[in-house]
Amino acid sequence: MKLLKNLTLPVLGILAWELLAIYLNNPVILPKVESVISILLNPGVGILGTGNLIENTIVSIERVLIGFLIAGAFAIPIGILMGYYSLINDLLDMTVELFRPIPPLAWVPLALAWFGIGESSMHFIIFIGAFFPILINTISGVKSVPVIMVEAAKTLGGSTKDILKSVIVPASSPDILTGLRIGAGIAWMCVVAAEMLPGSDAGLGYLIMYAYSLSKMNVVVASMIIIGIIGIILDKGLRYIETKYFCWKKMMK
């Protein structure tokens, strides 16, 4: 029953899309559903001389994973330190708040200047997109750890390292995971912007822009659907981890 409810709106949306496409009869404005499905059902067939859908998807996944993992590797330790040490938070907070609202696209000129044309610039744009949500949620998670838990660890003779390792990190993990979920979603959004940079010759973002330049909107829509599906899979995976390993968080509320 729940599945039926979840599918109702998407099915109605597809029907409305098809009726509108038939009415407009202009694939440059809105392609028909069957032309998009045809591409999705043949992911191994070459598209517009840019490789097939599977190859471009793998390229995008690799770029997103690299940028996302680098963002997590920096954001989580910095967030833990900012959340636990007020001095570090005071030193970095204004800088974080200054850079956090800047859209990833605004970093494109600097990315090209710093890293040149190539993969590194794309990884940097994805890194910027994922970094701040992970950082902010990590800081919030650490600050929300009950003081009584920290004090109890100190009373039992725990060192700062022990408290961080055995109290702060485990207790703030659900919030860190929430940050990773948000960061992963934004990283996927950034892949299109990243693959618009010079030097990109593959990936779903590149395929979208290249297909747009040739007015192949069915390819554009198919690529967008793939990005959406992978984003859902990534989010569901992280939600599964959250439900399986951090269900105790709900019991504390």
From TrEMBL:
<feature type="transmembrane region" description="Helical">
    <location>
        <begin position="36"/>
        <end position="54"/>
    </location>
</feature>
<keyword id="KW-1133">Transmembrane helix</keyword>
<feature type="transmembrane region" description="Helical">
    <location>
        <begin position="217"/>
        <end position="234"/>
    </location>
</feature>
<dbReference type="GO" id="GO:0005886">
    <property type="term" value="C:plasma membrane"/>
</dbReference>
<protein>
    <submittedName>
        <fullName>NitT/TauT family transport system permease protein</fullName>
    </submittedName>
</protein>
<feature type="domain" description="ABC transmembrane type-1">
    <location>
        <begin position="57"/>
        <end position="238"/>
    </location>
</feature>
<dbReference type="Pfam" id="PF00528">
    <property type="entry name" value="BPD_transp_1"/>
</dbReference>
<keyword id="KW-1003">Cell membrane</keyword>
<feature type="transmembrane region" description="Helical">
    <location>
        <begin position="178"/>
        <end position="197"/>
    </location>
</feature>
<comment type="similarity">
    <text>Belongs to the binding-protein-dependent transport system permease family.</text>
</comment>
<keyword id="KW-0812">Transmembrane</keyword>
<feature type="transmembrane region" description="Helical">
    <location>
        <begin position="66"/>
        <end position="87"/>
    </location>
</feature>
<dbReference type="GO" id="GO:0055085">
    <property type="term" value="P:transmembrane transport"/>
</dbReference>
<keyword id="KW-0472">Membrane</keyword>
<feature type="transmembrane region" description="Helical">
    <location>
        <begin position="107"/>
        <end position="136"/>
    </location>
</feature>
<feature type="transmembrane region" description="Helical">
    <location>
        <begin position="7"/>
        <end position="24"/>
    </location>
</feature>
<dbReference type="InterPro" id="IPR000515">
    <property type="entry name" value="MetI-like"/>
</dbReference>
<dbReference type="InterPro" id="IPR035906">
    <property type="entry name" value="MetI-like_sf"/>
</dbReference>
<keyword id="KW-0813">Transport</keyword>
